[in-house]
Amino acid sequence: xxxxxxxxxxxxxxxxSSFRPGKKGFKAPTEGLQYVVFNYTNNNxxxxxxxxxxxxxxxxxAVSGSIRYEAxxxxxxxxxxxxxxxxxxxxxxxxxxxxxxxxxxDVYMNELKEVxxxxxxxxxxxxxxxxxxxxxxxxxxxxxxxxxxxWSEIDETQDGLMLIKLIRDITHKRDETAQAMLDVVRAxxxxxxxxxxxxxxxxxxxxxxxxxxxxxxxxxxxxxxHDAAIKLVCDEKGLTLDAxxxxxxxxxxxxxEVEKEATSRYLAALLFDGLSNVKYAELKTDIxxxxxxxxxxxxxxxxxxxxxxxxWRIKASRSASSNLEPGTAMYQHGDGGSRGGDGGRxxxxxxxxxxxxxxxxxxxxxxxxxx
Length: 371
Description:
- Helix content is 54%, strand content 2%.
- By secondary structure, it is mainly α.
- Helix 2 (47-63) packs antiparallel against helix 3 (71-80), helix 3 (71-80) crosses helix 4 and helix 10 (227-237) packs across helix 12 (249-273).
- The longest helix is centred in the N-terminal third of the chain and has 33 residues, at 102-134.
């Protein structure tokens, strides 16, 4: 079984909200992950909990042995909420005499058999995922799930990924209770307001951001597809909008390519803009200053955002100690004396700040002096 992450019991209960003060809370049956629970309340403000819970259960799938075959593939499918694809082998061409080359035929048949095996394995694993996730749903969440329109189909086929998406939609309040237009507006608003908090890791922030993107896609929207972003990409490539909208397969392919790049860059810029100002205010200023010099340094993909933010954090931590002024946050020796500008607490060598700040002496007695 997967091990817990070493949190204390109280911290774990608080983090995964399956514990209700004064009541006996719901616990999931998976050893070590009892407090990884998908709960439903009227406020339903457990969006970050959803991301962390999915991540923990995906790790469990990968290492616990609950899935015997293709466990890493199943774990990745859970994290991305996307079913794996299996490319069909290329069928060999017939020779001049109308027959197939025997070697090519054997290779094709073996590859085809392997693909069918992988597809069957995934179908089985998807059902295991369903049962794992439903066992981590509180009674309130199960009741809410059973009231959704798509529940009967999901339950009958035991489609694990569809269950995860349904839990996600409920968590993000896409639970068929909101008006249709408000549903679309709120999904867009949730993405725009996705901000990294001071103590939120980059990985968790990215996962939450992606989850909100998927909510919009689930509602039929196209997050990040913005006309102004498309125009920017066209200008950079020397293309015109009229050329993209022309008839023909080439124009259609070029349009799809530009839209894909524009969407990726828009979402990357939005992800970057939502980085914590406490941690990355100087990084954002640096990017803005480069723009003034005519250099576009705005990251163009999720990976570039993570690389830039991670690298900047390391750079900042290395330079922090060297940039400190004397007396800022380091212990220095004083001359004893009073509790004030020139000495410590009592007589003898003082341990504390330099002039202008209080210091603590190692001598006897507590002196008094002016600041």
